[in-house]
């Protein structure tokens, strides 16, 4: 998402969808833990009520499973749940979707299982918890004491040491025994590695026409219409383009035929792409090139050394993890089957 480690909600897109008012940088207006009754479902737990949470220290984490910034906070959430849950900490993951593919409860369930999210998850498809928190970010952390009062918040990545100190302090206030001042043991998986900020010069880039920027194919995008696209002669840094038969909707681009391609000139260690097979397409094969060549040692987790991979489910796919030196590169992905939905580029 963004280089600052913050998935900022764009008011022009989501205000009508969730009825929120956005003012970048403000602190949360709500001082008390919100009711969780607006959740449309629960995973890993029965629905939690104020009675269930009475006397507990509660951490509400607003997330959505394709967000790279949230993924990079997840190792800390897992570690805190493992260390402090027996001492009175309850972590509630409020899953508020950014894209339509994240509204599928089974997709959330699968993502949670694969990522090791075993604390309670409130499915917030109606954005009830989001609104109650007056929230505007993915990820966002809200920490409430045993009386249900907001004592700490963190928007975006970072602040882990301070957040954990507050967890320890609030647990100590409840009289919990054995709360030490040592940090929890954090296990960072490959996709969860912090961004290389020194070499990060490419921003989150949306592909759907509602939020797309720096689209460089000649004649621009045909909104919600099937059309043939072609690459321009040259891409400047952070320009991107389509080639082949595509339909560009508000949130994604759909490859209608074989050999649909996307090119992006980027500068970062990691390049990720949020993708999903379209309805009726169970798997979509693809091939990735860097500067016209197979990625080899620059391959990400979701491709082999030749750049070959498959879109099998809605999620974030890590396609490039480039060794040093980091320089401007031309990324290209070609879909060998029809039916790929492409939502957003993120970098790290």
What can you see in these coordinates?
The protein is of the alpha+beta class. A hairpin with a 4-residue loop joins strand 11 (240-248) and strand 12. The strands form 3 sheets. Strands 9, 10, 11, 12, 13, 14, 15, 16, 17, 18 and 19 form an 11-stranded antiparallel sheet that branches. The radius of gyration is 21 Å and the shape is elongated. It folds into 2 domains: 7-192, 3-Layer(aba) Sandwich (Glutaredoxin); 197-347, Galactose-binding domain-like (Jelly Rolls, Sandwich), CATH 2.60.120. The chain has helices spanning 11-18, 50-53, 68-71, 74-84, 105-115, 128-132, 160-173; strands spanning 7-8, 41-43, 57-63, 89-95, 121-123, 137-138, 140-144, 150-155, 205-206, 226-229, 240-248, 253-255, 260-266, 270-277, 284-290, 308-311, 315-321, 329-335, 340-347.
């Amino acid at each position: 998402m963004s280089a600052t480690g913050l998935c900022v909600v764009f008011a022009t897109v989501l205000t009508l969808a969730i009825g929120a008012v956005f003012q970048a940088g403000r602190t949360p207006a709500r001082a008390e833990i919100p009711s969780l009754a607006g959740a449309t479902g629960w995973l890993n737990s029965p629905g939690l009520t104020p009675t269930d949470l009475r006397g507990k220290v509660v951490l509400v984490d607003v997330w959505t499973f394709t967000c790279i910034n949230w993924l990079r906070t997840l190792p800390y959430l897992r570690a805190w749940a493992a260390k402090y849950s027996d001492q009175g900490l309850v972590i509630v993951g409020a899953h508020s979707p950014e894209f339509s593919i994240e509204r599928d409860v089974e997709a959330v369930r699968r993502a949670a299982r694969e990522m090791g999210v075993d604390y309670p998850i409130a499915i917030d498809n109606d954005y009830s918890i989001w609104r109650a928190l007056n929230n505007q970010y993915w990820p966002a952390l809200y920490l409430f004491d045993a009386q249900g009062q907001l004592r700490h918040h963190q928007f975006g990545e970072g602040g882990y040491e301070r957040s954990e100190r507050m967890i320890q302090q609030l647990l100590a206030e409840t009289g919990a025994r054995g709360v030490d001042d040592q940090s929890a043991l954090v296990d960072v998986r490959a996709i969860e590695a912090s961004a290389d900020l020194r070499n990060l010069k490419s921003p989150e880039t949306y592909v759907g026409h509602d939020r797309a920027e720096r689209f460089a194919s000649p004649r621009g995008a045909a909104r919600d219409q099937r059309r043939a696209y072609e690459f321009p002669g040259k891409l400047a840094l952070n320009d991107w383009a389509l080639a082949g038969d595509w339909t560009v909707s508000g949130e994604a681009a759909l490859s209608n035929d074989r050999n649909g391609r996307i090119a992006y000139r980027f500068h970062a260690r990691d390049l990720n792409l949020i993708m999903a097979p379209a309805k009726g397409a169970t798997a979509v094969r693809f091939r990735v090139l860097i500067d016209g060549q197979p990625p080899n040692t620059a391959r990400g987790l979701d491709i082999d050394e030749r750049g070959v991979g498959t879109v099998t489910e809605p999620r974030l796919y890590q396609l490039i993890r480039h060794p040093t030196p980091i320089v401007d590169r031309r990324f290209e992905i070609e879909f060998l089957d029809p039916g790929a939905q492409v939502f957003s580029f993120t970098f790290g």
